[in-house]
Amino acid sequence: MKIYEFTKESGKTITRFNSSGVTIHPLLKPDSPCQIGYFYLEAKSVLGMHPAMCDQVLMITSGNGWGWGKASCKSRNGCVLERR
Q1: Distance of alpha carbon 6 from the chain centroid
Q2: Model confidence over 31-66: pLDDT tens digits?
């Protein structure tokens, strides 16, 4: 069994694609272009629009905000956004 620590302080800050207020903890990165990670998004943070290497799913566990791609939608706690 492997135990993962994903406190905000131990994560990696993301600034690419004009992102701000975003911290990631990569959890799994198999031998494919996909990965699984846990994000901390601070209030008024921006995860910049970026090219997707594979389908993407964003699961909101706390708070709310906006998601966008071909269309935009308001997201909230308990919501799942999928980008293909």
Answers
A1: 13
A2: 777 788 888 888 888 888 888 777 777 777 788 777
State the Cα–Cα distance between residues 51 and 63, nearest whole angstrom: 25
What is the rounded CA–CA span in Å between residue 25 and residue 43? 18
How many helices and strands (H and E) does the chain possess?
0, 7
Overall residue count recorded for the chain in this entry: 84
Full-model pTM: 0.70
What mean pLDDT is predicted for residues 63-83? 68
**CA atoms within a 13 Å half-sphere pointing along the CA-CB vector of 24:** 15
- Between strands 56-59 and 80-83, the pairing is antiparallel
What is the rounded CA–CA span in Å between residue 66 and residue 74?
Answer: 5
